[in-house]
Amino acid sequence: MEQGEGVQGADEAWLAGLAPRLERRGLEFLADFYARELAARPDNLEVLTDLGHVLTRLGRYEEGLAVDRRLAAREPEDPNVLYNLACSLALTGRTDEAFRTLERAILHGYDDPAHLSLDEDLASLRGDPRFAALLATLGAGGTGSQGSSA
């Protein structure tokens, strides 16, 4: 072994672990920033949407669900808002409510079966026959025009 090889390997391992830690810190910063922005401007739906996404990425699913419920109360017919709410419901184990909300999202125009079939937020629903029925309703071969940012 050449001199410095062990140190270089340790440095590489440290650097490899740095990126996820920095990403998490950045997301925590954003969550705090968005929460402060909402305290000052509670009607800012764009910030509320972004906060919901950040909380979900951080694994703070109950908080993300609360945000998505607020959004759905404000925008009850927006298919992407409903889709994101369904994702939060699935992530928190509220299966029946998640399916009802996905049905509402489709009723209001959500039509991206490819995204629906691959979205990891909905993984807990895939084994349920209702999931296949939703995909069939959408025509699982389509590409869809509504995309979720979740």
Number of DSSP strand runs: 0
CATH class: Mainly Alpha
Kindly give the count of domains: 1
Q: At the fourth CATH level, what is the homologous superfamily? A: Tetratricopeptide repeat domain
According to CATH, the fold-level topology is: Serine Threonine Protein Phosphatase 5, Tetratricopeptide repeat
Largest sheet: none
What spatial form do the alpha-carbon principal axes imply? flat
What's the helix-strand series? HHHHHHH
**Fraction in helix:** over 70%
Mean pLDDT over all positions:
88
Helical region count?
A: 7
Radius of gyration: 19 Å
Distance from N terminus to C terminus (CA atoms, Å) equals 47 Å
Structural class: mainly alpha
What fraction of residues sit in β-strands?
under 5%
Catalogue the unreliable spans: 141-150
Give a structural overview.
The chain is mostly helical. The protein has a single domain (7-138), classed as Alpha Horseshoe (Serine Threonine Protein Phosphatase 5, Tetratricopeptide repeat), CATH 1.25.40.10. The chain is built from seven helices and no strands. The longest helix is centred in the N-terminal third of the chain and has 36 residues, at 5-40.
